[in-house]
């Protein structure tokens, strides 16, 4: 099979880029021909450039011509779009439709139903614009890049293509990363019959078994939406408990790093909390192998955090909030534990209880690894992806036959 991947890469490289390249390598390892047409946001510097890009995101004739030319030269069986925003734009769907090529679209976030793509505003989950014909509230709040003008351009893109029927008629199959995300997309107007659920996967190197150590781990960007502020607050709360929480190792970097380090020092917790900064994948996996628990306290819905799949692959149970995709991925008492979202005291209680029950923790470790083997390996992901591709190709055959 010949697959053309389309992806607009962000300035800050994240898990989405890793998924794109991992799927490309996976498909190629099974003998498929894959071409990745990738554009980058690296040149979007300055207010004018960002505003121009936001306006061009509504419909880019240049991108349509670029994709159409690639379709003629590469002649793919189908096109797999990962991200069209902002430079490629939904015009790429028209190029595919005019060429008679089915389109699979992975929805790595909530872009089609939220200008900010996160369903998150002012430190809180927000669904005000979901299902609305125009995201007026988002424009007023300047949700996208803290700019009303840029948010207005994104909202115009969403409204225009909803009115035009782009989401309904020009994408053959959507891929949602979780059942939770699928339901939100349906509420936002994406046709249910077009959505398939396929989670992300992680390909693991051979790991040598090592003994567990008495520390817990946070891995992620040090930003507001990741909830690390609540995690540190849980350690402040634990000062009122009879038993201290285990040592916390924080892996990652981000805009809140200096503020969080200062807070830990002010609270007198430097002997309980260590900042390790950015680590490469092998270093992270090594820390996961040795850790007793992963804490993933994100305060937005998330898409599909690869960190959780990596933890499961290492047999590491996870503590997550009872929120969004995280609550779906982690089963309480089986692969980890839930706490009340944004409740630092409850988070401290759950950490303490989990660490204290060594038998249950060991059981969760075994079941976390089983969950990885049953859901998140490369081979399982490949088989599901191929089913989706054949569904898209079958839809094309049905259309061409007049069915």
Write a structural description:
- There is one protein chain.
- The protein is α/β, with parallel strands linked by helices and 403 residues long.
- It folds into 2 domains: 2-201 and 378-400, Glycogen Phosphorylase B (Rossmann fold, 3-Layer(aba) Sandwich), CATH 3.40.50; 215-375, Glycogen Phosphorylase B (Rossmann fold), CATH 3.40.50.
- 45% of the residues lie in helices and 16% in strands.
- The protein contains 16 helices and 14 strands.
- The strands form 3 sheets. Strands 2-1-3-4-7-8 form a 6-stranded parallel sheet, sandwiched between helices. A 6-stranded parallel sheet has the order 11-10-9-12-13-14, sandwiched between helices. Strands 5-6 form a two-stranded antiparallel ribbon.
- Helix 3 runs parallel beside helix 4 (91-99), helix 9 crosses helix 14 and helix 12 crosses helix 15 (358-375).
- The two termini are 24 Å apart.
- The relative contact order is 0.11.
Element pattern in H and E: EHEHHEHEEEHHHEHEEHEHEHEHEHEHHH
Please count the beta strands (DSSP E, at least 2 residues each). 14
Contiguous uncertain segments of 5+ residues: 398-403
CATH topology of the largest domain: Rossmann fold
The total of helices stands at: 16
* Major sheet attributes: 6 strands, parallel
CATH C-level label of the largest domain? Alpha Beta
User: What spatial order of strands do you see in the largest sheet?
Assistant: 2-1-3-4-7-8
């Amino acid at each position: 099979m010949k697959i053309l991947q389309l992806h607009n890469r962000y300035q800050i490289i994240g898990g989405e880029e890793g998924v794109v390249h991992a799927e490309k390598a996976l498909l190629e390892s099974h003998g498929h021909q894959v071409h990745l047409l990738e554009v980058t946001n690296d040149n979007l510097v300055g207010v004018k450039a960002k505003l121009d890009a936001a306006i061009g995101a509504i419909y880019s004739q240049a991108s349509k011509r670029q994709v159409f030319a690639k379709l003629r030269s590469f002649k793919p069986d189908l096109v797999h779009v990962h991200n069209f925003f902002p430079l490629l734009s939904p015009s790429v769907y028209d190029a595919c439709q005019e060429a008679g090529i089915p389109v699979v679209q992975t929805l790595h976030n909530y872009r089609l139903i939220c200008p900010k793509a996160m369903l998150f505003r002012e430190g809180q989950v927000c669904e005000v614009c979901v299902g609305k014909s125009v995201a007026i509230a988002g424009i007023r709040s300047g949700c996208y890049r803290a700019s009303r003008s840029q948010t207005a351009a994104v909202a115009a893109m969403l409204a225009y293509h909803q009115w035009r029927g782009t989401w309904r008629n020009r994408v053959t199959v959507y891929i949602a990363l979780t059942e939770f995300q699928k339901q939100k997309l349906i509420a936002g107007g994406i046709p249910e019959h077009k959505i398939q659920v396929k989670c992300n996967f992680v390909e693991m190197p051979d790991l040598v078994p090592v003994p567990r150590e008495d520390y817990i781990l946070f891995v992620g960007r040090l930003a507001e939406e990741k909830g690390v502020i609540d995690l540190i607050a849980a350690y402040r709360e634990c000062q009122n408990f009879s038993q201290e929480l285990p040592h916390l190792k924080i892996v990652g970097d981000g805009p809140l790093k200096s503020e969080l380090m200062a807070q830990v020092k002010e609270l007198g917790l430097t002997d309980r909390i260590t900042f390790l900064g950015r680590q490469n994948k092998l270093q992270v996996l090594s820390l996961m192998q040795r850790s007793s628990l992963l804490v993933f306290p994100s305060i937005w819905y998330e898409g599909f955090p690869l960190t959780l799949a990596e933890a499961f692959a290492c047999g590491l149970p996870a503590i997550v909030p009872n929120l969004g995709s995280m609550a779906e991925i982690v089963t309480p008492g089986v692969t980890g534990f839930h706490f009340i979202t944004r409740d630092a005291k409850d988070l401290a209680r759950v950490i303490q209880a989990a660490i204290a029950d060594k038998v249950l923790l060991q059981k969760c470790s075994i079941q976390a690894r089983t969950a990885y083997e049953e859901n998140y390996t490369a081979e399982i992901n490949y088989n599901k992806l191929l089913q989706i591709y054949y569904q898209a190709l079958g839809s094309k055959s049905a259309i061409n036959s007049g069915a």
